[in-house]
Amino acid sequence: MKRLIHTVLVFLFIIGNIYSQQEKGIIGSNNWLRNWTEFKPNQTEYGEPTQILSGSITKDTRLLKRDVYLLLGSVFVTNGATLTIEPGTVIYGDFATKASLTIAKGSKIIAEGTVTDPIIFTSKRSVKRPGDWGGIVVLGNAPINRFGSGSVSQFYPNLTGADYANTNYGGDDEVCSSGILKFVRIEYAGKRITRETYFNGLLLASVGKETKIENVMVSHSGGDSFAIWGGLVSLSQAVSYKSSGTDYKFSYGTRSDISNSLAVRSPYLSNGSGSRCMEVKSYDKKQEFDFSKNSTHVTAKNLTLLNDSDNLVSDIKMNLVKAAIYVGENAKLEMDKTVVSGFNPAVILDDGIKINQDNLEKIVLTEMYFNNCNGNIFIENNSNNEDLENWYGNSAFFNVYSKSENAETFIDVKNDRIPDYRLRINKIIASNDVDEEIRID
User: Fold this and answer.
1) Topology given in CATH for the domain delimited by 36-400
2) Which residues of 81-94 are buried (b: 16+ CB within 10 A; e: fewer)?
């Protein structure tokens, strides 16, 4: 009887260990990337445009799957109108006119595709490149932490006086809804506007908590893939693939949740703006920050942040690989059950953050899986991270460390058509001891 009980306990321990490994990073009993994503959009043809969208959409409008649309210039949905897009609809962004789609404050977008019939925003050029067109901008009435309201007018060339009002965002309605984006692909967006200004694949500014953002893939963006400024929005199954900018950028007092999401970076793509998987900041310029308002607070769970490098040591030597996560001063990050694989290092904290218990309690990293990173957690411009390693390496955080190639760590990253970035079960040799840095002699 005792032997049976012992056997059962060992079995339960093994099953529990397998489950704890499986639950890190993106999760699902099946590969949820199947059917609706596209990892080689440059090889996909969507047909010729049959309809043109330009100017302002001021009344409720429906885009139909049977038509193919071309965005010309800066297209605004205004006057409280709702733009509804049928599953399977294709919308091209025009290169020459720096096309973009903006949902003004008080209006909505209902873009609800399906797993087998996603909605696609893409480039019309025969040779597609990051930044071929602008992107999608959604403006809401939820709070920001800047003085006054905000404006995105810097993105639009040749704005008329009437359109300036449609670029404003910010207010006090935390639960406002700007609509739904579900099973949507945004390809080759992120047009460069000035030397330092890029559109983003998807910009959510002051978007309220009733807005639904699920199963959205931004690929090959010239700017940031997902930019969240203020508001209270949740993202689930958000995929950023080989962006030239940052994959997920949170700022201006947003209180956001992001879960079960994937970012895949290439070391050979960058727009020069310090591109990373994730940035969590309360402001860009401290003088803009109203200290009486909320700091940025991001809760992140079950993310997979992956650097797709063929030769990590060589790419680090050439300074092509950056940190995966950056946390700014006066910002909060709670991150749990996340995989960070192949970065230099895994996490950087702003050099204005003093290492004390109060500040470290604002940056919570629990049940993390740090794999094949050249160092784990550092203060910016400071190579001595002993205090940070002692803090986050404490067994109470359940963080684990490993050195494994991506092909050994994830189920099927080499599949060009439908890769599977979930962790391999029983392939993780995890330890609570902090590993040494990658040798780059």
Assistant:
1) Pectate Lyase C-like (2.160.20)
2) bbbbbbbbbbbbbb
